[in-house]
Amino acid sequence: MTETDFRVKHSELIEYYQLIEERLRGICAELMADDEKNWFNKFRDYELEPFGSLIKKLKDIQGQNQIVLLNEEDFGKLDDLRKARNYWVHQCFGFHNNVTFPGGECVILNMKERFVQISTKLQSGMKSLRIL
What we know:
Blueprint: H1 3-32, H2 39-45, H3 51-65, H4 72-91, E1 99-100, E2 107-108, H5 111-131
Helix pairs in contact: 1-2, 1-3, 1-4, 1-5, 3-4
């Protein structure tokens, strides 16, 4: 995988996570719509909510309204997606990813080795995302 391929795939992966977040916002908005605010206006209430907060709010809304859209297993999968998303958005290019400890010794990877490691993780992440 070339660096360009990596960056395209990384962008596609982030796009998928954003799509999931957007759908969660829409679900929360629809469930909270009432006579005063339709779902579109409620959607604005969730516009800036991060993935983790949306999961928690959806769980709370289900409890308040005594409805079940998602079960605990579904919420677990969403939380796994949240963790993976956070890695790809906030950590995959961080300093800690150039350091490995094979046999207990600290080795600082050069940029090419780091790129190969991240590319491999990215390909794996894309495969698992498509399964869901």
